[in-house]
Write a structure and sequence with these properties.
The chain is of the alpha/beta class and 279 residues long. The protein is built from eleven helices and 13 strands. It is 43% helix and 27% strand. Strand 11, helix 10 and strand 12 form a beta-alpha-beta unit.
């Protein structure tokens, strides 16, 4: 059986890696006024943060179901099955779009997977699935492996500016104002598919130290992990953090990724996070 792997743009897997592992990507959209851009296709993360400075924050939208249908029909010409891996169904309807499209296409079995997370941790699932698919592993075995990885997946992130969370309905206006005055950096994480506060920490430095400590708790268990540092237009800071953490945790393989246009809209420039899962 020949299996294709699909994910969406919020996995933020570099094009070279997608091409290497033959991962198909469906883009989400950011809308500035009347102009819609497909992230990772029409607008890069770097371009997005420049646009925001000029035009303010856009809105975001999931891919239309028809876009999934079109891709799945195309894949049906060459593949027997599709594993479609998406950002958490608690923050976007993208996963449900893949589910719906899967019921509308004949000649190919579509198995949607809710990562219950986003960004490059979601990307780790897609890369694992693609590597297994390249070896001819069955859909059932790949899906079981993804569920197994889910048990070890973690992600924590902080925002530099609370107003983005307030605008998106994550914080009340009063909390945003008080938080900004106190320099509070709320640590956030995914719980039951949605983004919720984990802890409130006073400064950026302490928040990053706390995230590193949480990784350390898992890394101390002795298993090998892959971890990704994720930044919103703070690449130099992310690379410095990677170098520091690589020296501390030799059993962790570190990557650097970014919050692209869609996730960056909700977190704002300066956000920083880290996610990991057991190898």
């Amino acid at each position: 059986m020949k299996t294709a792997v699909v994910t969406d743009s919020t996995a933020y897997i570099q094009k070279e890696l997608r091409d290497k592992w033959n991962i198909h990507m469906v883009p989400l959209n950011v809308i500035f006024g009347n102009e819609a851009y497909q992230e990772e296709v029409d607008i890069s993360a770097e371009e997005f943060y420049k646009e925001v400075k000029q035009k303010g924050l856009p809105t975001t939208s999931q891919p239309p179901v028809g876009q999934f249908v079109e891709l799945f029909e195309q894949l049906a010409k060459e593949y027997d099955a599709v594993i479609s891996i998406h950002l958490s169904s608690g923050i976007s309807g993208t996963f449900q779009g893949a589910v719906t499209a899967g019921t509308m296409v004949e000649g190919i079995k579509v198995s949607p997977f809710d990562s219950e997370i986003s960004c490059m941790v979601q990307g780790f699932y897609a890369l694992e699935a693609a590597e297994m698919a390249s070896r001819g592993v069955s859909v059932e075995a790949i899906m079981a492996r993804l569920e197994e990885l889910k048990e070890t997946a973690r992600a924590y992130f902080m925002v530099d500016d609370l107003t983005h969370l307030q605008r998106g309905g994550r914080l009340s206006s009063a909390q945003a104002i008080i938080g900004s005055l106190l320099q509070v950096k709320p640590l956030l994480h995914f719980e039951n598919k949605v983004i919720v506060p984990f802890e409130k920490i006073r400064t950026r430095k302490k928040a990053m130290k706390r995230i590193a400590g949480l990784l350390g708790e898992d890394a101390a268990k002795g298993a090998s992990y892959r971890a990704v540092i994720i930044h919103a237009n703070r690449e130099a800071e992310a690379n410095e953090w990677k170098a520091e953490l690589s020296a501390l945790y030799p059993n962790v393989e570190f990557f650097v990724s970014y919050f692209g246009a869609v996730i960056g809209t909700h977190l704002g420039e300066g956000a920083m996070g880290m996610g990991w899962m057991r190898k």
